Amino acid sequence: MMMTGLKLQNLGLRRGGRLLFSGLELDLKAGQVVALTGRNGAGKTSLLRAVAGLVQPEAGTISFGDLDPDEARASSLHLVGHQDGLKTSRTVAEELIFWSRWFGADRAQALDSAARLDLTGLLGLEVRRLSAGQRKRLALARLLAAPRPLWLLDEPLSPLDASWRTRFGDLMAEHLAGGGLILAAVHDPLPIPSIGLEIGA
């Protein structure tokens, strides 16, 4: 069953004893992208982690259309955090193939995603040798290797250069055109039209 939406109702989050926000509402539908904004510490990252099931809300509900929440989180979303979570001692190929298989994709899909993000020439390098922008592209390649409807992205444009911001915008637009959904925490504007949601205002 395809995920058709993400809905937050009266959502509240607390971190370290401090209430980050309360009463948050969102109704994200297939084909839409929401740019999540707010000052540092407002709870943008915590919200993405709550949607992914890694943080328990203080109040309210998170639902995924007709999907069971556990099923949705296990098989229908990707979370790409601000920290890339890459193992630096592996080669680019080893890291991408490992994560692709973890998410249910195969080697061919991993290598195809590498080609789409101009990583093919870097596959033999250790991750530690990559630039910050190359590491970000490697982290984002997981989105393409094992397609899932909901992308949860924490600062996806940092530290991409202007050219790669535009190119990643094209990949986002392609994902949305196929019925995908995107919730992205950002400081800079996304390279595609988006719905704005500010928290902690």
Question: Would you give an account of this structure?
Answer:
With 201 residues, this protein is an alpha/beta fold. The strands form two sheets. Strands 5-6-7-3-8 form a five-stranded parallel beta sheet, sandwiched between helices. Strands 2-1-4 form a three-stranded antiparallel beta sheet, with helices on one face. The mean pLDDT is 94. The chain starts with a strand and ends with a strand. It has two domains: 130 residues, Rossmann fold, CATH 3.40.50; 61 residues. The protein is built from six helices and eight strands. Helix 4 crosses helix 5.
Descriptive key words:
alpha/beta, 2 domains, Rossmann fold, 6 helices, single chain, globular, 201 residues, three-stranded antiparallel beta sheet
CATH class of the largest domain: Alpha Beta
What share of residues are in beta strands?
25-35%
> What gyration radius follows from the Cα positions, in whole Å?
17 Å
The separation of the N and C termini measures 36 Å
State the helical fraction. Answer: 25-40%
The best one-word shape is globular
Based on the coordinates given, report the CATH architecture of the largest domain.
Answer: 3-Layer(aba) Sandwich
Q: Pick out the low-confidence regions.
A: none
Question: Count of DSSP helices?
Answer: 6
- Which class do the helix and strand fractions yield? alpha/beta
> Looking at this structure, what is the CATH superfamily of the largest domain?
P-loop containing nucleotide triphosphate hydrolases
Q: Sheet with the most strands?
A: 5 strands, parallel
Strand order of the largest sheet: 5-6-7-3-8
- The succession of helices and strands, N to C, reads EEEHEHEHHHEHEE
Number of strands: 8
CATH topology of the largest domain: Rossmann fold
**What is the averaged pLDDT score?**
94
